[in-house]
Amino acid sequence: MPYTAPLKDIRFCLEHVARTRGLADTPLFAEATPETVDAVLVEMGKLATETMAPLQRPGDAGCALADGIVKTPEGYKAGYQALAEGGWMGLAAEPELGGMGLPLTVQTAVNEMQASACLSLSLNPLMTQGSIEAFTAHASPELQERFLGKMISGEWNGTMNLTEPQAGSDVGALKTKAEPEGDGYRITGQKIYISWGDHDMTDNIVHLVLARLPDAPSGSKGISLFVVPKFLDDGSENGVKTVSLEHKLGLHGSPTCVLAYENAKGWLVGEENRGLACMFTMMNNARLGVGVQGLGTAEAAQQHALAYVTDRVQGKALTPADAPKTGAIIDHPDVRRMMMEMKARTEAARAICYDTAKALDMARAAPDEDRAKWAARGAFLTPLAKAYGTYTGMEVSELGVQAHGGMGFIEETGAAQYYRDVRVTAIYEGTNGIQAADLVGRKLSMDGGETARSILSEAEAEIASAQTPMTRNLAAVHEAAEDATQWMLAQNDMAERLAGSNAYLMVMSTLHAATLLHRGLRAAEAHMADDPDFYLAKIAIASYYLAHIAPEALGYAISAKLGSSLHYALTPEQMAV
After folding, report:
1. Fewer CB within 10 A of the terminal residue: the chain, N end or C end?
2. pTM of the entire predicted model
3. In the annotation, is 94 catalytic?
4. 104 and 198 inside one domain
5. 125 and 164, same structural domain?
């Protein structure tokens, strides 16, 4: 089934769940009126549905490297050109630089639709968005003038070069060198896992590369950031060579490159030895973007599975007496369970991602005295959005394969591609384990737990706001999350926190999703007369999440507090017995 942009779901989440309408009341985002936002969503919905979605299956054939040139799948170049011509690269970029200046929240909704339609292709503009942000924050006016305009227009695209064979998550171990020369530097080294590191869709590729100056301190404190274009201003090649393409489980339409820098010309971005901080400007919002990739894949996989189960006739279903019978396998109770779970998990991930984007927007747009609070909230929610969004993409796409039965294991149906494509999202831009460690190691303690307590208080206020049949479930999750938070804050031994970090991330993610969906449930009840079928669906899906999925947090809360002893109960040698 072709993907169709879920515009009504997106609008509902923006307005009633994340409550983003107030962004237009700020001076920074005064242009983001409801009418403007809706026009943007409609246009992207059309482009994603009609232009990008047809590229999903052909893209699985993958890219090819021949004679040093990476060829992208058929149709990708035209699809990218449509994105560039529509100005979608610069949606959130500053207007004075040629962008639209719209909130990250709107960009997030746009990114969701792109990811749903064709995840491989959507990764390209996501990389460029991050590059634009890093340039805007840290590059000199001269470098901005030279590179930003063409990235915002989509004539050029950007990449992020961190990883090396010996330096994965430990970026401080990188060995790429930068030698001063004239007005710039000469960059030499090798980078791996570079998404969209080479391709045939733009005239130039702007690489942001981490490297070491000759006298740099060891470790992460000695890393600087450089811009290294594939081609120089005179059109000549710049010593950037594509050594190979990675052979991957999925995401075949996105070329993941091994790049060799051989005396390539580069220019310093930001201050010397402050490259990691500069790159994190790009990475933080990229982590939200990757969470949205998980969300987008979940939406597409859910739509794909729904089309199949409402058409496939197999066996006689034992349905409840009052349930309508279609004759298709969606009548079977366990198939119905899978479809409700897919929908509920998807809407939960959407709620967290959009709410995170709103916090990051308000950290820029709110009055000065409120910005620190919003920034802390955005920082706390970012690892939740990244990890919970990508976990959701994996869980929902796996359920999509299961819902297809044996046909889900057959590539021709396309169900397996969603799972293969989304699997890497839990790994890149900081593995989900790193997100959990960041949550308990930095974000939980950055303000003595104040931001975590504010998330708990928000749930408490939602519980007190109205009593629905699902309020008791939200209250139980709140109690479990509060207990786990107190336990985490009481641990002085970071190893004990880290042992329960993934479980704690899931507790807080589930609590926040449950809070937001409960808010949406109440809004749907208030608007039932406007569109009964749609708002009934919102109530049903939120209720399903609160009743069947949110209680998982109780088990996660127990696990979060158990500490490290059982993790280390066996030596590596004993594990092999």
Report:
1. C
2. 0.96
3. no
4. no
5. no
